[in-house]
């Protein structure tokens, strides 16, 4: 195995330097096409920078979802989070895209918080822990400005009565052999972890179930689009394989890359708090993390002025690209200046730090206001 | 493997001629002791024939449950049924014992109907099917005269919000390796079936959970006794192994033998309707089944008068012993007369048929009345 191939991506582990080209090939997904981008741009008025910069780069069946939107059919969005700790900026990437799509296409969002998953997969977490983390994580979603009337937050242990019958339909059709092949389970895996993916399937079907209940039409269906980081794709391969067999449309997928770690590797590490900026970090803490971040700089200032920096491996540049500099022109200029040595790490870090502090201050204010709104977002039948 | 050992007992399959002595050894259970029988007799006033005849013959930790009763501690009963079809007489055996114990010890019964299990394990059944079968099966329980104030019927898909968090606690501590060894799963088993035993564990813990909620004492516990057919023991071995690790007492068990098939083998077959008498059979149908039953008779009447019959292998005698002749003296006399040739099959069948018809007539009357009571029995938080 050469170095380029030396990476692993599963819903529970991302290691090595991810080659997204190879990953698309391995997972069998498609790149987002220019035509699809144009379709979205036309509808939204403006193409979100996460799409134009190819942060959201891969898809499955995005076309049928866009087509359903075009034809005025019922559509929905579904994304979520495994509540294993505080929310970090990397988690916000798919949520921001989801917000953009909800605003553009005006559809409902089902937001799943898998407190069961994180309890089952993480040694040190109790169900009480993951449930209260789920409520905390929901505050971050609400703080982004989602519309309570169109957003249903589903915490698995709270919504299990709605989810379990659908999970059983999936579970009956999923052999251990397939689950093992898709997720890499072994004999020591606990039986809850083996079952869990069936719960993650269910929000892909709940919009159709609700529509059937509402209209009395047994074959009513809602086309669901799932914006998510690409490590979640294995879950939805299973979902898509089984959807047709249980009378639902296959959900569409829109995949993003991972926000790289502040330490320079492919994905933030939940076990190393300094590798990511959490929405609950104080602006001062966050600033310190930025100032200590891995960059694309050279050994000396002199060298960097002469040879330039490498923005591709620079976590400061990547933070600007993924989240903190939505202005394409400003970003381009900055990255070019970094590449040719006109901007050095100190200034670049200071620029990002200001953006981060401003974002956190505002987000944390909205996040506190969200506590009072929480009840309006929680799913009830 | 010699013929005596050539049998299989799992929760989903009983084949061959079951040697109960060997089964106790294989499962590692204990026989019910004379001391335990005396304890129950003293409390109940009279020893139920299912105990004196050793139909209930095996146990795990029966002593701590009796001890808890003696000391006035909180105790409960838990039994159930997998709703894969109509209830037959074999199912009523543990329910009758449970009724006797509830009357004697005055405790709550948690009655689980595993509609999820039967959906997962049976190819042709939908969740709607198993849920409506669960409601039908509950009528048979109610018809036996259980007290609504002390009896909580839990249908898994209806009670999953209460059960799922407890099932997750079990699931986190149960590896696939153990589940495979206990239940004989393989790579083709569906992931729902692998997970299911954790749901069957939960009614063993729910009484303690309720007590904790009621009293506010985090370590409050209720000792639970599970009367059941011995094929359910593997589930509760898992439950017992994990109970201590999640802060609950190990449930006690009281096992019964299987009501033999009317065709003569160890256990009734759900796939052959003539091998069992269903509570919904018309008295005439039931009579026909009895008249065609496998007996311990001889080739000719003459031979039988001379050599006598074999009541041990006779399904008619077994039906009397397990259910339809509660009077020990009458049973003994009849079996002795059958053994020495004084009673022939025709008379024996006619005797049983009368008992069966009378039982069904009365049971079916009560069963219809139960429809109106059903709501009072269904578990709600």
Describe the 3D structure.
Two copies of one chain form a homodimer. In chain A, 53% of the residues lie in helices and 11% in strands. The first copy, chain A, is of the alpha/beta class. A seven-stranded mixed β-sheet of chain A has the order 3-4-9-8-5-6-7. Chain A has a two-stranded antiparallel ribbon with strand order 1-2. Chain A has helices at residues 20-27, 34-44, 49-52, 62-70, 89-105, 115-121, 127-143, 156-172, 176-183, 191-201, 206-215, 233-243, 283-291, 301-307, 315-324, 328-339, 345-377; strands spanning 8-10, 13-15, 30-31, 56-60, 75-81, 108-113, 151-155, 223-229, 252-256. In chain A, helix 12 (233-243) links the parallel strand 8 (223-229) and strand 9. Chain A binds chain B through residues 116, 119-120, 127, 157-158, 160-161, 164-165, 167-169, 171-177, 179-180, 185-195, 197-198, and chain B through 116, 119-120, 127, 157-158, 160-161, 164-165, 167-169, 171-177, 179-180, 185-195, 197-198.
